Amino acid sequence: MFKPLAAAYSLSLQHYLQASHGLLAVRKDDFYRLFKPAWDSSFIKKHALKAFKATGIAPIDPEVVLKKFRKSTLTAPPPLVNVSRATITNLINQAYDPSSIAANNLSEILLRLQAAKEIAEYEKDALRAALHVHQKPRNRHEPPLDLQQRKAFHSGAVWWSPCKLREARFRQLVKEKEKEKELLDKIELKEAKENNRIYQLKIKEAARAAREEAKKVRDEAKAVKAAELDAKRRDRDAAKAIQQPQSGKRKASKPAAKQQPKKRRVGGAGGGTLAEVAAPAPPPTTTRRGRAVNTPAKYR
Questions:
Q1: Where is this region: Disordered (predicted)?
Q2: Would 227 be classed as within a structural domain?
Q3: By CB atoms within 10 Å of each CB, which of 83, 91, 92, 131 scores lowest?
């Protein structure tokens, strides 16, 4: 409906401009005069029915709208591998007459494109190889060669022979190998220390486990011994409790009798009387330097 309206209004506006030779401008009051004929010629029964049919309103046809939202799966032809001049010529001969001008023109265009494609692929591979070489990591901090010159050399310019360069490179290679060997030795020493540390930890762990096991055995033995002693003590107490009613009352305890001093004989050989004389006290105990030693009471 609106497409015929736009076409009719454009046509009436074009007629107006042609009639005025472009000298008159289109004003607001000219709009309705130009728009009304376009409206009357567009909004008619024929155009309305055509619009209803295109949108599936009358007659009712939902497929008119639904088919616009369905995606058609197009099957692409199989790609051509190793496209050559003979392949292109055969394809063109199958589609067109080989003697026609169109076939010759198409063949020439395709051959040019095929040649340009091969050249582009060759340049691409060359650029990729060059880029790979450029991006290859380099040792920017490469040490200088150990070039040794004679002591009697006095010239300002230095020219090194290939032999000298080979010798310098060999010396540098030897130094690098020595550095690698030192690094490997350090790594091996570090690994040996780590293994030794782990071994010592295992030994300590085993010793600790052995101590815990021995302590456990000792504790069990002490518990068994304590149980035996407790059983013996209970048996002894039970035996005493049985014997006590049979023995009756216990006699009162008496103080211990004092030790009587020894008697010594006094008199001549022909006989004499016996006199009770107390034994003299023992001499005091002294040290080597003459100091008196106080003997404890329980040892007197």
A1: 214-300
A2: yes
A3: 131
